[in-house]
Design brief:
By secondary structure, the protein is an alpha/beta fold. It has 6 helices and 5 strands, in the order E-H-H-E-H-H-E-H-H-E-E. A 5-stranded parallel beta sheet has the order 3-2-1-4-5, with helices on both faces.
């Protein structure tokens, strides 16, 4: 199977693996699965780290892509269409986060199961999002 991890799943993999559900942990550990991380997640982490909204416990944000590769996460190679097609993801009254919406769009467009604990993502299943936690 092919999966896309939400930003918090990557952070928890590094800093707090006990927060990851058993089902998702098993997916991440299974070498038969293809697990992707979006560059959008790196962008989100860098912005939040700079704004002091994310404590990376001493990890330099510049090292995050390399760390992802060490965890056998493949960096998703987005195409320009991935960015401009974000408008196809409906704006929901209670969810307008652009980072999340981009991950949702990339998962839908690339037929990837999004691994996320974010309950707000469930409302996008009607739009084709495959979600697991």
């Amino acid at each position: 199977m092919k999966y896309l991890i939400d930003t918090h799943v990557f952070i928890w993999s590094l800093l707090e693996p006990k927060k990851i559900s058993k089902k998702v942990f098993d997916i991440l550990e299974d070498t038969e699965n293809e697990v992707y991380i979006s560059p959008v997640s790196f962008w989100e982490m860098a912005i939040k780290h700079q704004a002091n909204k994310l404590d990376l416990k001493g990890i330099n944000p510049l090292h995050l892509p390399h760390i992802a590769e060490q965890y056998d996460f493949t960096v998703l190679n987005p195409e320009p269409y991935d960015y401009v097609s974000i408008g196809t993801v409906p704006l929901k009254e209670n969810h307008r986060d652009p980072f999340d919406r981009m991950l949702i769009q990339q998962a839908i467009r690339n037929n990837l199961v999004l691994l996320s604990a974010d309950e707000k993502f469930q409302q996008y299943e009607e739009n084709g999002l495959q979600l697991m936690w």
